[in-house]
Amino acid sequence: xxxFLQWNRQQEAKxxxxxxxxxxxxxxxxxxxxxxxxxxxDNDLSKSAMYEVLSGKxxxxxxxxxxRKEE
Length: 71
Description:
The protein is α+β, with helices and mostly antiparallel strands and about 70 residues long. It is built from 3 helices and 3 strands; from the N terminus they run H-E-E-H-H-E.
């Protein structure tokens, strides 16, 4: 029984955290982003700068912000 609990915890630790990325436009509108790279291209945004916004290294890029919400 103890071995099963240990195995189960290890399996849970391997499960990726499911999250969704939302872009917040300069207008304040929040948009669910299905494809982050395409969203950046379509809105003339630097993908690397937006990933820095997403990770918290930058607060915004061209007025856009990005957040991750866990399911």
